[in-house]
Amino acid sequence: MRFLRRTSSGLVLAGLLTAAIPCSSAWAAKAPEQPVTLDPLSAFVAGKVAQGAGDWTAAADFLALSLKSDPDDLTLLRRAVLINVGLGRTKVALPLAKRLVAAKDGNPVALTLLAADAVAAGDEAGALAAIDALPKDGLGTFMRPLVTAWIKARKSDWPAAKAALEPLEAQAPFRAMAALHAALIEDLAGHEDAARTWYAQAGDGGQVLRVAMLRANFEMRTGHPDQAQAALAAVLQADPRGPMGDAARAVLAKPHPTRVVANATEGLAEALFDVAAAINQEKVAEVALLYARLALHLDPSLAPARMLAGETLSEMDRDAEAAAEYTSVVTELGMKTGEKADVGLLWAARLRLADTLARQNKSQEAVTILKAMAAERPDRSDALVRLGDLLRVGQKLPDALAAYNQAIERLGGRPNGGDWFLYYARAMVQDQMGRWPEAESDLLRALQLQPNQPGVLNYLGYAWSERGVKLDQARQLLEQAVKLRPNDGAIIDSLGWVKYRAGDIPGAVDLLERAAELKSRDPAINDHLGDAYWAIGRRLEAHYQWQRAVRENPEDTLKATLEEKLKRDPTAAK
């Protein structure tokens, strides 16, 4: 679940900003221990290695060593600014950014950091100077209007603030973003009718929770609870029992809420968060992290930006840092009560924290969190679902089954389409425990809730084919799954296998060869293709496929089966 906005600007922003941070994905070595002395070039290279390995703290330390010896090197300065911003060390990055700008370097992150800092300080001239130094295209096409608008808003020059957004309004990918900030500015100005119009336009841009929450907050403050309910209707429908639904209900329960964006500094923080959220939807995690950090530099209490920082860190396999961000959100929000509490975001942060701890092999800590959450809210099932997933992955099958059973009981016999995964997960556990009739029933229930779910179609179809039952129905399910995912090697393998089991060996070979092309290192697929080759008389090729399967380290049962097959003589008379 993402506390973000889904906007059409995401793809455009990702294209404009990908170059904002050096690509480090090629660096795969682990960060070395920092030596006592290191020459500048070695420190620079070590910093790149550390960054590529995900240890940005070590990377920043190595770059600091390099900069001591060569303080004016622009390459070092750029990288140091980006890494320190990514770490949330914006106070460290500020003087480095100033040195870059003094050298006439147009690094967009450095310039945006300086502009944001100037807005917070009330330095209109400094903010405008930083923004004016941005390139006329690329990043400057949307950052200049946003920052300029909030600079003018800080001076209560509302007409100029609104006019600054006009270049964004003229560009379709940024129109919804421009509408949201026009709404926030008109709202601050006390122009209720204009603000309502712009909020409606922002809501028409395909956004989900954040815009709906801001709009509903406005409607509640101005005495229009029905309009607030309408603004949140889609959220309540999409996530009736989840954190987003909780967050929406919490807004509607506050008859006199405080303003979410209370001043121009918070408005610019919101703008930077919007940029980060849009970029993250296009999976450019490193760049999204930078802009989330810039938003937090202006407004450290902006919990959605901190959640986004945690999400991007998780995507970058920096789970310890992600856990720290989620813990910070839990700590801060957990201290707020009454109208100041954001129960939906707090719940989501705790779920994310548990997920992140589990990825760090801190399963017991995650289990403790999830059990506490499940006990606190007997009306909810999501913590129990997470608990069941964690226990299932850890092969604690009876405990996982108990968690799923309890979660399903809490549905009260009224599951909705979004609950399909709960039945699917329970089916997998029951299947592993040898309870196939119960598993089959749950898989059919999952399909009833979500008829076009490829994973369920594949699981049930393959399970029937393995058991040699309902082969026509299995083929129909798998053909449907292949239509939904035509390039999924595992599903194509399942369809090939049901044809094999039904005696259509030529048809099986065609499909299994396609599956092996798509997933060339899957031992189960290689095994199936070997069986089909053997059945059609291509015995040397069958042996080759079985040998490939063995080389891919299959699980013990499959390995034993393969070793028996390899004892067959491929040259014997047929």
Please give a quick description of this structure:
With 574 residues, the chain is mostly helical. It has helices at 9-17, 40-52, 56-69, 74-86, 90-102, 108-121, 124-132, 140-154, 158-164, 166-169, 175-189, 192-203, 209-221, 225-231, 233-238, 243-252, 264-280, 285-298, 303-315, 319-334, 343-359, 363-376, 382-393, 397-409, 420-432, 436-449, 454-467, 471-484, 489-501, 505-518, 523-536, 539-551, 556-565. Mean pLDDT is 88; it is low at 1-36.
Give a short account of the largest sheet: none
Can you tell me the residue ranges where pLDDT is under 50 for at least 5 consecutive residues? Answer: 1-36
- Write the CATH fold name of the domain at 9-24 and 108-306: Serine Threonine Protein Phosphatase 5, Tetratricopeptide repeat
Question: What's the CATH architecture of the domain at 9-24 and 108-306?
Answer: Alpha Horseshoe
Identify the CATH homologous superfamily of the domain at 9-24 and 108-306: Tetratricopeptide repeat domain
Using the coordinates above, name the CATH class of the domain at 9-24 and 108-306: Mainly Alpha
Computed Rg: 28 Å
| Helical content band | over 70%
Give the helix/strand class: mainly alpha
